[in-house]
């Protein structure tokens, strides 16, 4: 009985650990990337690309009119299946003026100096 309980607890522990690692991985990745960039004297924000992808249109420059937050996944799913959604129209992204990216504020600052 004790052995079964112990292995069960061990299994649970490993499972939790793996789960934590899965969730923590992107954060650790970003952290490492940022420290690598700073050690290479690259811009932390854009990695010397001098531009940042627009988060609103995901770098496309167009957003789908009528698409509400939370339904974008369904939209993507439809898109991946090649289904035409006549209700959704693409409009120029107002956040980035349809450019799909912004000038990096950090880089534009340093270039001005
Ligand atoms: Zn945009
Ligand atoms: Zn930058």
Outline of the structure:
By secondary structure, this protein is an alpha+beta fold.
Task: Name the descriptors.
113 residues, alpha+beta, two-stranded antiparallel ribbon, two-stranded antiparallel sheet, binds zinc ion, 3 helices, flat
Q: Segments where pLDDT lies below 50 for 5+ residues?
A: none
- Biggest sheet overview: 2 strands, antiparallel
User: How many whole angstroms does the radius of gyration measure?
Assistant: 22 Å
The molecules bound to the chains, other than polymers, are:
zinc ion
Q: Give the percentage of residues in beta strands.
A: 5-15%
Report the end-to-end length measured between terminal Cα atoms.
71 Å
Strand order of the largest sheet: 1-4
Give the helices and strands as they follow along the chain.
HEEHEEH
Determine the mean pLDDT.
74
| Count, helices | 3
- Apparent shape: flat
- Roughly what percent helix? 40-55%
Structural class: alpha+beta
Description:
- The protein contains three helices and four strands; from the N terminus they run H-E-E-H-E-E-H.
- It is an alpha+beta fold and 113 residues long.
- It folds into two domains: 41 residues; 65 residues, no CATH class.
- It has a two-stranded antiparallel ribbon with strand order 1-4. The chain has a two-stranded antiparallel sheet with strand order 2-3.
- The site of one zinc ion has 8 residues, from loops.
- One zinc ion binds next to helix 3.
Question: Secondary-structure map with pairings?
Answer:
Elements: H1 2-39, E1 51-53, E2 62-65, H2 72-80, E3 89-92, E4 101-103, H3 105-112
Antiparallel strand pairs: 1-4, 2-3
């Amino acid at each position: 009985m004790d052995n079964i309980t112990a292995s069960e607890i061990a299994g649970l522990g490993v499972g939790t650990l793996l789960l934590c690692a899965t969730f923590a991985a992107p954060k650790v990745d970003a952290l490492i990337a940022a420290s690598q960039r700073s050690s290479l004297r690259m811009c932390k924000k854009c990695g010397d690309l001098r531009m940042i992808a627009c988060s609103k249109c995901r770098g496309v420059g167009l957003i789908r009119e009528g698409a509400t937050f939370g339904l974008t996944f369904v939209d993507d799913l439809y898109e991946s299946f090649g289904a035409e959604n006549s209700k959704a129209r693409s409009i120029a992204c107002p956040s980035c003026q349809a450019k799909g990216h912004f000038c990096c504020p950090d880089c534009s600052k340093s270039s001005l100096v």
